[in-house]
Amino acid sequence: MASRHLSRSIVLQSLYEWDFYNKKSVLKDIVERNIKDFGPGLEELDFIWQLIEVIEKHMPDLDKIIEKAAPEWPIAQISMIDRNVLRIGLSELLYSNKEEVPPKVAINEAIELAKTFSGTTSGKFVNGVLGTVYKQIEQK
């Protein structure tokens, strides 16, 4: 598994656990434990921490964007995995260095996370939401 893909998986697992416990745990502690458990020898730890920082800082905005792009799905009704996959994808789409993570890579990686960790239709759902946001960005 590629280093960045594994890093995104660790971020997803950490956000899922944090979300599952209603954000009452310390996210940093969850991430550190998951790095130790799932990413021994992983070299790009900065990538994980950058994603976590951006998502934590912009979560209310990310959630509003998700709800706007998927109006039939209030954020609380989106499965926890899909919700956090979308947060990862959006954070990369909106806040990452486009030379480092091109928009299509951010979208594709999010789709792959959804296919791996969520239900059968999740990849299409994630693609639809992120595709909608990407089109809006491109129009500006």
Description:
The protein is mainly α and 140 residues long. The chain has six helices and no strands. The radius of gyration is 14 Å and the shape is globular.
Notable characteristics:
74% helix, 6 helices, single chain, globular
Chain-wise SSE layout:
Elements: H1 3-20, H2 27-38, H3 45-69, H4 80-95, H5 103-117, H6 122-139
Would you tell me the structural class of the helices and strands?
Answer: mainly alpha
Helical residue percent band? over 70%
What percent strand?
under 5%
| Global morphology | globular
What's the SSE pattern?
A: HHHHHH
Distance between the termini: 35 Å
How many strands, which pairing sense, and closed or not: the largest β-sheet?
Answer: none
Counting DSSP H or I runs of 4 or more residues, the number of helices is 6
Radius of gyration: 14 Å
Q: Mean of the pLDDT scores?
A: 94
Unreliable residue stretches: none
Count of DSSP E strands? Answer: 0
Write a concise synopsis of the structure shown.
It contains six helices and no strands. Helices cover 74% and strands 0% of the residues.
